[in-house]
Write a structure and sequence with these properties.
Oligomer: single chain
Number of helices: 14
Number of strands: 22
CATH superfamily of the largest domain: Methylthiotransferase, N-terminal domain
Shape: globular
Radius of gyration: 22 Å
Distance between the termini: 58 Å
CATH class of the largest domain: Alpha Beta
Mean pLDDT: 92
Strand order of the largest sheet: 2-1-3-4-5-6
CATH architecture of the largest domain: 3-Layer(aba) Sandwich
Strand content: 15-25%
Largest sheet: 6 strands, parallel
């Protein structure tokens, strides 16, 4: 009988693409992939370590896994596994921990599924994670996350990612295009480009060989893919030529996610970000000038050391005035071995929570205001296979989330619809454009 493996992914889109690729390694070795609750022989938990909460989630997932299948072999990979392998090895029931340089050889390491009294740890220094390993998610969504870049050479004071993933390195344009063609052949309609520092694409063996813009132009020519979405790009790497190209592209969609982290130049300096807020505002203005209906998402951190009430209000007002569509709000949490963890001016937890709540409310207002500008328009929606309370969802090219009654025929289909009104849960309700024309 085939051995069964189940996966659980914590964290970013990059992790999801890598989990899918690790899954294919298991399938090629004769394992069948099953749901988490289907008593697998092996659990693989792909971890994140961006926040303290992600660490706690890993421990909880291990505990739940062993309730489902007490004799299963539990392997932990991902950023948390690279940063704190000894800590993970102490979690009851964990059998193996693989670092960043080892995770894509996981099948070679799992030679015996006998539970270990003490977890085996294979974890080289992150400097050994210097090879780019391709990854993409397939078969689990209407869209695929395609990894084209890994690692980061930036030194933001709050971030552990360079410690967990190593130096910036990239795929070749030729291989990225080949993978995009394979994804197109599988019937997937949308590709989301992912990386740790996506705009830094082009570094191989420590040398810059290409630019992200070169990749964008090459992928735009791939036949069979309807949409290509850029997952997240640093404001200092989002050039005029990229914005201008996306504005006229048939495949790259009008949606940018641009990390800000703070609207205070003082805090940006403490974070060692590579721009000031004026540059960020200029990027947003350029996008909106060329693509008035473009969706713009923003990452922002509250409660960074040294952030006074005045600094936060400065950020709030900056965001309030900015023509953006939604916020991803992160509450700062201290991470070991980062300069920020030793900075003065610690913000009390209650103040962090209050600031987070204020920005979440602002995000809701921003999203609703953006959606209201889209009502009355006819647009093309890519529908997904989810069902919730009898409804299914999909997204327009510019990332407006719509809902309609579930229809299996619509799954993974592009449909032209009319955006009519905002539902009580905040999604946009639609009618099919054919019905509009018929009336």
């Amino acid at each position: 009988m085939d051995k069964k493996v189940a996966f659980y992914t914590l964290g970013c889109k990059l992790n999801y693409s890598e989990t899918s690729s690790i899954g294919r390694l298991f399938n090629n070795a004769g394992f069948s992939t099953v749901d988490f609750t289907d008593t697998p022989d092996v659990f693989v938990i792909n971890t994140c370590s961006v926040t303290e909460n992600a660490d706690k989630k890993c421990k909880k997932v291990v505990k739940e896994a062993l309730k489902i299948s007490p004799n299963a072999y539990v392997t932990i990979v991902g950023c948390y596994a690279q940063l704190k392998p000894k800590e993970i090895a102490e979690i009851p029931g964990v059998d193996m921990v693989l670092g960043a340089a080892e995770k894509f050889q996981i099948v070679d390491y799992i030679t015996d599924l006998t539970k270990n009294p003490k977890a085996l740890v294979y974890n080289q220094p992150v400097t050994e994670a210097n090879q780019f390993v391709s990854a993409w998610s397939i078969g689990d969504r209407t869209r695929t996350f395609l990894k084209v870049q890994d690692g980061c050479d930036y030194s933001c004071t709050f971030c552990t990612i360079p410690l967990a993933r190593g130096a910036s390195r990239s795929d070749t344009i030729e291989n990225a295009v080949k993978q995009a063609e394979e994804i197109a052949a599988s019937g997937v309609k949308e590709i989301v480009l992912t990386g740790v520092n996506l705009g830094d694409f082009g570094i191989r063996d420590g040398k810059r060989e290409d630019k992200f813009f070169d990749l964008v132009k090459a992928l735009d020519k791939v036949e069979g893919i309807d949409r290509i979405r850029i997952s997240s790009i640093e404001p200092n790497l989002l050039t005029d030529e990229i914005i201008e190209f996306v504005a006229t592209s048939k495949r790259f969609v009008p949606h940018f996610h641009i990390p800000l982290q703070s609207g205070s130049d003082k805090i940006l300096g403490l974070m060692r970000r590579r721009y000031k807020r004026e540059l960020y505002a200029n990027r947003v203005a350029k996008i909106k000038q060329l693509m008035p209906d473009c969706c713009i998402g923003v990452d922002v951190i509250v409660g960074f050391p040294g952030e006074t009430r005045e600094d936060f209000i400065d950020t709030y007002n900056f965001l309030n005035d900015l023509n953006v569509s939604y916020l991803h709000v992160f509450t700062y949490s201290e991470r070991e071995n980062t300069p920020a963890s030793e900075m003065k001016g610690t913000v009390p937890g209650s103040a962090r929570a209050e600031r987070s709540k204020m920005l979440h409310i602002l995000s809701d207002k921003k999203r609703r205001a953006f959606y209201e500008t889209q009502l009355g328009r006819t647009d093309e929606v890519l529908f997904e296979g989810d069902i919730k309370d009898g409804f299914m969802h999909g997204f327009t090219r510019n990332y407006v989330k719509v809902k309609t009654k579930y229809d299996p025929v619509l799954v993974n289909e592009l449909k032209t619809v009319h955006l009519t009104q905002i539902s009580p849960d905040g999604d946009v309700e639609i009618t099919e454009s054919e019905e509009i024309l018929a009336h």
